[in-house]
Specification:
About 35% of the residues lie in helices and about 0% in strands. It is mostly helical. It starts with a helix and ends in an 18-residue tail after the last helix.
């Protein structure tokens, strides 16, 4: 999160943070350098155009849940702006139940 706050200090508005590492990984995958687990929302355009495709089925998807915490005390202006943005734009939960392995059945 520290990187996220630094990025927003020069920006007049808060936008959804993105990962430089994820963008690098996506570029490497597009160049044929391997596979990577990436946030679907960061590669939605490449998936829609067919530049990237999912390598596995639903069992390869990793559902995550992110919680944001802060101290009660006042934070830096960038951190306060981020916190205000989070409060004003809550995201609905899209968590899916994990897929259970079928090993051992037969």
């Amino acid at each position: 999160m520290a990187r996220c706050f630094c990025d927003h200090q020069t920006s007049p508005s808060i936008s959804e943070p993105s990962s430089h590492l994820a963008k690098l990984l996506a570029t490497m995958v597009q160049a044929g350098r391997g596979m990577a687990w990436l946030q679907e929302n960061l590669i939605a355009d490449q998936l829609a155009s067919g530049e990237l495709v999912k390598a596995g089925g639903p069992e390869w998807e990793i559902p995550i849940e992110i919680h944001v915490y802060r101290p009660r005390s006042r934070l830096t202006p960038a951190a306060e702006a981020f916190w205000k943005h989070v409060q004003e734009h809550p995201r609905p939960s899209t968590v899916r139940k994990p897929v259970r392995s079928r090993r051992g059945r037969g």
